[in-house]
């Protein structure tokens, strides 16, 4: 009997959640397209597609609906995984599958961020110096300076105004970003401390460690929101501020999005820890989140060096 | 051990029937069947789009459609054939055959597997929906930029570009999920005793494919995300006025796009040697050499991307680097060709349909490879670039090297999957019609391309008229021949001569030790490989 169980791989029941999540994705994506098509504006503020403005509102509701479906179905799906885990369906063999799968998934996330880092390096090293290097009488981008941060030329180019409302200031590496770095680095330490607690079967240390990690993550997000607010209202730095604004907000924005997801995941395993889930030997759910959190941490270090400091 | 007493086979003896079976399934064979069926349907959809193009190009001048619609058909044809026909076919084979070939009870992550498939129909809807919306006055149709999304055209384009961006996002999620599942299955689910170097070649081909997908698909997702923000949120990634560069998109796109070629072909290179050894009745030649060559190609695939846009302008050292590295790929590929031919050498060969497709595949894919070498030459490429020569070249690699390889696989494994033999006469007829009409379609395109006919233009100079007419006739014969393929598959699934377990006299490997068709749960106890 025992040997039979060793060789038995758990193949779960059929489940409708994956197919319904796809319905949610379809609704979210097409709703987004309808919404932006209906509400897009030109540089001067005029509506781009006046005949299609009626699409904006239904598009918005399709997005909400899609998002709600996705979140609810993910909740149901993960609940059934937790139930299966608690009833002992996952043993060493299944556990190894989850581990390899999580590592490969994090690798794909690294590749996603690599695209945006690649764009940053390309612009700084190639396209910005290139654009500034043309002779003034042949370039339409006359005031272009080969400096970083770059916000593009001043004035009107080929009929469109590229001058931001006000000149922006780049984000400094000290102040909030430095605090954020310290917050994330300490959160990496607290989650490791929580993991030690789990391995030693010290539940109190586990729960407190996770709580501290969540608190640090949430504080990070609040600081980032404050930083964005400051950038938009006082520094004139927006998504539209040329190559610098685009890379700054897309890189830190996607990172912030990942921190948000990571924090949600941390909250889930924190609640599970309080309920008594996870054992010293068997806690992939915890480790998967911890790995993800460390990944988000490492991406931040890359951001801090290449976006803020250099 | 309170945990072991609960867990037994109780959880998966029966499954729902009807539509719910397919919507909820976690069974690798069900999911494989869905992937393959979806692929066949989309193959016909994408094929009919291009027949519209060939009908327009039958004569010079504009006859059937306006240029805008012509461009839309071309772009959506390519996206459908690549993402919705070829890739799902390869994933379908992986689902069906990998667990059987490596002696696994199922794929490692069954529910994720199901999700990976069910993302595909919504993405197909997103791709084609703009055609329908245009009929109701919403937007101006599907994306008209070609499948490559080059800015600034794609930044200026209409609603179709947005839909295509999201379709690509969803298809990317599907591919990443599929790849995670395949990597985990190969590393964690092999039968005891089956070391990596004893794996079937198909598993090797797919493992490297999955690594390439993990490394490159997210980059494409990032690139089209930048496109989306450039379109709607005022970023300047691809706008020189803000310090960006449209050519940066080409770099990001082809960093994905070139490995994509190998993503489409590596699974085929995996099972082609297996078909060759079956019908040559001798073991495949140079197993290790083939594995190392697959790795070499996989590694080179991610460092050669810029040969797709030599003419866009880059420094001479970059041109030289991308030329030499591209040409270096022909070395491991030559090793593979040698091994394939050497497998047949002095074999006791027979030419059932899968073998016919495989031998035809080697010849035609060889032409695709050799014409690629000419394109990789920086000096010569200025003449070839953006001409019909390129179109002919990549159809020799992707239709002959991709689709015809998939067809060889379909005929090879169909008796195993359905339990029935397909109609051999019809199969052979299908091969000859496909092979001949394929050449009739694309050989003329080499000539018009060399003479300077640009691709993606609905009208052409009178001097190209004859060749285009021949090409269009070939395309219609090619398209209609595929109805034979569909008929043969459907009738094979519905009945026919009973297939034996081994099916083919020379077939080797674990999948041929199971009954045809295999039971719903194949290896409940893992076999031991010596």
TrEMBL record, chain A:
The chain crosses the membrane at residues 16-34, 61-79, 100-123, 178-199, 206-228, 248-271, 291-309. The keyword Membrane applies. Its EC number is 7.1.1.9. Signal peptide: none annotated. It is found in: Membrane. It is a multi-pass membrane protein. SUPFAM superfamilies: Cytochrome c oxidase subunit III-like. Keywords: Membrane, Translocase, Transmembrane, Transmembrane helix. InterPro entries: Cyt_c/ubiquinol_Oxase_su3 (IPR024791), Cyt_c_oxase_su3_dom (IPR033945), Cyt_c_oxidase-like_su3 (IPR000298), Cyt_c_oxidase_su3-like_sf (IPR035973), Cyt_c_oxidase_su3_a-hlx (IPR013833). Residues 5-310 form the Heme-copper oxidase subunit III family profile domain. Its main location: membrane. Belongs to the cytochrome c oxidase subunit 3 family. PANTHER family: CYTOCHROME C OXIDASE SUBUNIT 3 (PTHR11403:SF7), CYTOCHROME C OXIDASE SUBUNIT III (PTHR11403). This is cytochrome-c oxidase.
From TrEMBL, chain B:
Residues 22-530 form the Cytochrome oxidase subunit I profile domain. It is found in: Cell membrane; Membrane. CDD domains: Cyt_c_Oxidase_I. It catalyses: 4 Fe(II)-[cytochrome c] + O2 + 8 H(+)(in) = 4 Fe(III)-[cytochrome c] + 2 H2O + 4 H(+)(out). Its EC number is 7.1.1.9. Pathway: Energy metabolism; oxidative phosphorylation. It comes from the Bacteria. The chain crosses the membrane at residues 31-53, 73-94, 115-139, 159-189, 201-228, 291-310, 322-341, 353-376, 396-414, 426-447, 467-490. It is a multi-pass membrane protein. InterPro entries: Cyt_c_oxase-like_su1_dom (IPR023616), Cyt_c_oxase-like_su1_sf (IPR036927), Cyt_C_Oxase_1 (IPR000883), Cyt_c_Oxase_su1_BS (IPR023615), Cyt_c_oxase_su1_dom (IPR033944), Cyt_c_oxidase_su1_bac (IPR014241). The keyword Translocase applies. Keywords: Cell membrane, Copper, Electron transport, Heme, Iron, Membrane, Metal-binding, Respiratory chain, Translocase, Transmembrane, Transmembrane helix, Transport. PANTHER family: CYTOCHROME C OXIDASE SUBUNIT 1 (PTHR10422). Cytochrome c oxidase is the component of the respiratory chain that catalyzes the reduction of oxygen to water. Subunits 1-3 form the functional core of the enzyme complex. CO I is the catalytic subunit of the enzyme. Electrons originating in cytochrome c are transferred via the copper A center of subunit 2 and heme A of subunit 1 to the bimetallic center formed by heme A3 and copper B. Belongs to the heme-copper respiratory oxidase family. This is Cytochrome c oxidase subunit 1. It comes from Methylophilus aquaticus. The lineage of its organism: Bacteria, Pseudomonadati, Pseudomonadota, Betaproteobacteria, Nitrosomonadales.
């Amino acid at each position: 009997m025992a040997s039979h169980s060793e060789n038995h791989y758990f193949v779960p029941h059929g489940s409708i959640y994956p197919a319904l999540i796809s319905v949610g994705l379809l609704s979210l994506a097409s709703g987004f397209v309808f919404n932006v098509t209906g509400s897009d504006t030109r540089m001067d503020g005029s509506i781009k597609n006046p005949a299609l403005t009626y699409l904006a509102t239904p598009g918005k509701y399709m997005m909400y609906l899609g998002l709600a479906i996705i979140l609810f179905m993910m909740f149901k799906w993960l609940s059934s995984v937790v139930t299966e885990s608690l009833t002992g369906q996952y043993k060493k063999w299944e556990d190894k599958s989850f581990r390899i799968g999580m590592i490969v998934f994090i690798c794909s996330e690294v590749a996603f961020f690599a695209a945006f880092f690649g764009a940053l390096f390309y612009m700084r090293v190639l396209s910005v110096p290139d654009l500034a290097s043309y002779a003034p009488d042949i370039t339409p981008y006359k005031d272009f300076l080969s400096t970083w941060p770059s916000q593009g030329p001043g004035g009107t180019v080929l009929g469109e105004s590229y001058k931001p409302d006000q000149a922006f200031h780049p984000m400094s590496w000290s102040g909030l970003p430095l605090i954020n770095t310290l917050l994330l680095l300490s959160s990496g330490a607290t989650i490791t401390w929580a993991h030690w607690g789990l391995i030693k079967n010290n539940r109190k240390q586990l729960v407190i460690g996770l709580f501290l990690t969540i608190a640090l993550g949430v504080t990070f997000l609040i600081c980032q929101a404050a930083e964005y607010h400051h950038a938009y209202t006082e520094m004139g730095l927006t998504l539209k501020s040329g190559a610098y604004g685009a890379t700054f907000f897309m890189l830190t924005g996607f990172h912030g999005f990942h921190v948000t997801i990571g924090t949600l995941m941390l909250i889930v395993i924190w609640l599970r820890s309080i309920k008594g889930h996870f054992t010293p030997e068997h806690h992939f759910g915890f480790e998967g989140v911890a790995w993800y959190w460390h990944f988000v941490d490492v991406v931040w270090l890359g951001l801090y060096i290449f976006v803020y400091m250099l | 051990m309170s945990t072991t007493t609960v867990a037994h086979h109780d959880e998966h003896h029966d499954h729902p029937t009807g539509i719910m079976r397919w919507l909820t399934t976690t069974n690798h064979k069900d999911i494989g069947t869905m992937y393959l069926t979806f692929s066949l349907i989309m193959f016909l959809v994408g094929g009919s789009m291009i027949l519209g193009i060939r009908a327009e190009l039958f004569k010079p001048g504009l006859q059937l459609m306006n240029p805008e619609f012509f461009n839309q058909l071309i772009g959506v044809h390519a996206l459908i054939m690549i993402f919705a026909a070829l890739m799902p076919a390869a994933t379908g084979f992986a689902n069906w055959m990998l667990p059987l070939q490596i002696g696994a009870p199922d794929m490692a992550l069954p529910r994720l597997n199901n999700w990976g498939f069910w993302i595909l129909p919504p993405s197909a809807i997103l791709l084609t929906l703009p055609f329908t919306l245009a009929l109701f006055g919403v937007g101006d149709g599907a994306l008209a930029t070609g499948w490559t999304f080059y800015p600034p055209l794609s930044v200026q384009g209409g609603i179709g570009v947005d839909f295509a961006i999201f379709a690509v996002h969803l298809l990317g999620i599907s591919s990443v999920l599929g790849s995670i599942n395949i990597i985990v299955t190969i590393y964690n689910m092999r039968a005891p005793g089956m070391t990596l170097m004893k794996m079937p070649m198909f598993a090797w081909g797919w493992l490297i494919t999955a690594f390439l997908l993990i490394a490159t698909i997210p980059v494409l997702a990032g690139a089209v995300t930048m496109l989306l923000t450039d379109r709607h949120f005022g970023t300047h990634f691809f706008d020189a006025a803000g310090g960006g560069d449209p050519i940066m998109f080409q770099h990001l796109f082809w960093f994905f796009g070139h490995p994509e070629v190998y993503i489409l072909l590596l699974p085929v290179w995996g099972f082609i040697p297996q078909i060759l050894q079956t019908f040559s009745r001798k073991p495949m030649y140079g197993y290790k050499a083939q594995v190392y060559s697959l790795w070499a190609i996989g590694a080179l695939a991610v460092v050669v991307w810029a040969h797709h846009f030599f003419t866009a302008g880059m420094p001479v050292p970059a041109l030289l680097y991308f030329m030499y590295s591209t040409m270096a790929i022909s070395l491991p590929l030559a090793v593979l060709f040698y091994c394939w031919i050497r497998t047949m050498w002095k074999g006791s060969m027979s030419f059932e349909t899968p073998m016919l497709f495989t031998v035809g595949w080697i010849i035609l894919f060889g032409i695709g490879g050799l014409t690629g070498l000419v394109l990789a030459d920086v000096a010569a490429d200025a003449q070839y670039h953006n001409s019909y020569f390129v179109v002919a070249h990549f159809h020799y690699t992707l239709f002959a090297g991709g689709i015809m390889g998939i067809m060889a696989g379909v005929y090879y494994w169909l008796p195993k999957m359905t339990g029935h033999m397909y109609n051999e006469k019809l199969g052979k007829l299908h091969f000859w019609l496909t092979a001949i009409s394929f050449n009739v379609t694309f050989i003329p395109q080499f000539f018009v391309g060399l003479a300077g006919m640009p691709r993606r233009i609905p009208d052409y100079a009178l001097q190209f008229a004859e060749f285009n007419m021949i090409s269009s006739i070939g395309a219609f014969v090619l398209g209609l021949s595929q109805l034979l393929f569909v008929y043969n598959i459907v009738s094979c699934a519905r009945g026919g001569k009973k297939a034996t377990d081994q099916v083919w006299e020379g077939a080797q490997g674990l999948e041929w030790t199971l009954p045809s068709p295999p039971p719903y749960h194949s290896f409940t106890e893992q076999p031991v490989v010596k």
